[in-house]
Amino acid sequence: MGYLRQYSPFMQLVTFLGLMFAFMMLHSLFMAGFFPAISGGYTIEQFRDATVWKDPAFVRGLKTVQLLYTVVGFLAPALIFAYLAHPRPALYLGMRQAPKGSQLVLAVLVLACALPLVGVTAEWNNSWQVSYAIRDMEDLAAEQTKLLLDMPGLSDMLFSLLLLALLPAIAEELFFRGVLQRLIMQIVKNGWLAVIITAILFSAIHMQFLGFIPRVVLGFVMGAIYLLTGNLWLSIAAHFLNNGLQVVLVYLYQSKMIDYDVLKDEHTPLYYGAISLLLVGFLLTVLHKRAKAAGQTFELPAEKEEENEDSIFKD
Predict the structure, then answer these.
(1) Which of 68, 123, 213, 222 is deepest in the core (most CB within 10 A)?
(2) The Cα angle at residue 239 between residues 236 and 242, in degrees rounded to 5
């Protein structure tokens, strides 16, 4: 069987983006044809009508759309492309081996230490002067997020963890770091430039202008973890921590277990961001050294197969 890796990186990128647009089109067709059936009769045009958001049927439809968007828009194109690109898709995606415990802890710490820097950049980004149209779009996105994060019970919180944390962490990391960052790196011949470009695209596709810079920072951190370790499970873990922590904190706030509302903008001192940046740099260096010592640094798909390491769960 011939694989896409025999073609130029640019042609592979075009093919991958074509897959993405094809699946996005399928998602759009589903939205247009079936959304009324899963939302109690509402149509896509009523998304901007805040009054319909109070209907539980509409919220269920919105959650279904979010689930399908993640699976169809990101997960499916990444998995199909990896299968078409390489004889060993898990090797191609950097998912051949489960990470060591120490690496997992370090990756999670990297993301946790990056959060103050994310907070500083978010506060700065949100202060930008933008048009009323953009501000209205941001407000609409914020309201939709609140709807998805309405969690009266523990079962709702667990479902939100699946919908907004675990599934996006897997699907988006496969798409952006597992495939897109790899292809861009092959084109630009520079790993760090590929990380930056992918982080920008990662943020742009979320289409939230006032959250653009902090999401670039998050994308850069997760891309750096993958570049320095070659293990996608680590960037998935970091991504899950970022999303999952917000879900849990919102649930605890709604349950009146804590007073901190993570959805409200909080001031983050600038020096917190500076300390955060230093800690992230230090921890990434340590993580890279650990991965290098274990022989697990990032490599482009090798022509020769490593037959003695077939299991993705081998340590």
Answers:
(1) 222
(2) 150
3-state DSSP of the chain: CCCHHHCCHHHHHHHHHHHHHHHHHHHHHHHHHHHHHHCCCCCHHHHHCHHHHHCHHHHHHHHHHHHHHHHHHHHHHHHHHHHHHCCCHHHHHCCCCCCCHHHHHHHHHHHHHHHHHHHHHHHHHHCCCCCHHHHHHHHHHHHHHHHHCCCCCHHHHHHHHHHHHHHHHHHHHHHHHHHHHHHHHHHHCCHHHHHHHHHHHHHHCCCCHHHHHHHHHHHHHHHHHHHHHCCHHHHHHHHHHHHHHHHHHHHHHHCCCCCCCCCCCCCCCHHHHHHHHHHHHHHHHHHHHHHHHCCCCCCCCCCCCCCCCCCCCCC
Candidates 75, 116, 102; CA nearest to 266 is 116
Q: Are 229 and 287 in contact (CB under 8 A)?
A: yes
For each successive 10 residues of the chain (315 residues), what is the average pLDDT?
A: 86 96 90 79 72 79 88 96 93 87 93 95 88 81 82 92 96 97 95 97 90 95 95 96 94 90 83 96 93 71 42 38
Let me know if 124 is exposed, middle or buried by CB neighbors in 10 A (0-12, 13-18, 19+): middle
Q: Judge whether 245 lies within some domain.
A: yes
307 in a domain, yes or no? no
> How many independent structural domains does the chain possess?
1
Is residue 300 included in any domain, yes or no?
no
Note whether residue 311 is domain-resident: no
Q: CA 298 to CA 188: how far, in whole Å?
A: 16
Report pTM: 0.89
